[in-house]
Specification:
With 168 residues, this protein is α+β, with helices and mostly antiparallel strands. The longest helix is centred in the first third of the chain and has 31 residues.
Length: 168
């Protein structure tokens, strides 16, 4: 099959336009992915002295040089690193009994670990305050390391198992 010079030129232009469109879409995807990338560690506020955020999920941010931040929908909590006087890490380990009863006894061999971070600090009036968070599994180490670096305090571990998981 033979194509004229004009037909070859037209096919080349179509291919070029197609490739330009594909490249544009790929570039747009990369830009939007970077813009919506999550920063910080996912966490849920489970207790403490902060009002109005009980049970709210959000993000812990340790990237600021001055403040520890917890951001959740409709509320933000900032604590100056200089005011933090306690950083404590602990775990709650549960066997998956319900899953074992319903699905398979093999689930008795697995454990579910919840990671808890307690931040103690003194407020503007000098009163002791506390924040307790349940932190996502994959981010706890980076949060602990950042808090040690920013506050100058050593993390206190509730037990040896927490020490192993917190230090890696």
């Amino acid at each position: 099959m033979r194509f004229s010079v004009t037909a070859k030129y037209m096919m080349g232009m179509r291919f070029g336009r197609l490739m330009a469109g594909v490249c544009s879409l790929a570039y747009l995807f990369v830009l939007t992915s970077a813009a919506y990338a999550e920063t910080g560690a996912g966490a849920t506020y489970v207790g403490g002295t902060a009002a109005g955020i009980e049970g709210k999920s959000g993000r812990i941010l340790t990237t600021d040089d001055i403040f520890f931040e917890f951001r959740c929908k409709g509320k933000e909590v900032y604590v100056n690193y200089d005011k933090i006087n306690l950083v404590e890490y602990g775990q709650n380990v549960n066997r998956r009994v319900v899953m074992a009863a319903i699905i398979s006894p093999m689930f008795l061999l697995s454990k579910k670990r919840d990671h808890f971070l307690t931040i103690g600090y003194s407020d503007k009036q000098g009163k002791q305050q506390a924040l307790v968070f349940k932190v996502d599994k994959g981010k706890i180490r980076s949060v602990l390391v950042a808090l040690e670096a920013r506050t100058g305090l050593k993390v206190q571990f509730q037990d040896d198992e927490a020490r192993k998981k917190g230090k890696g």
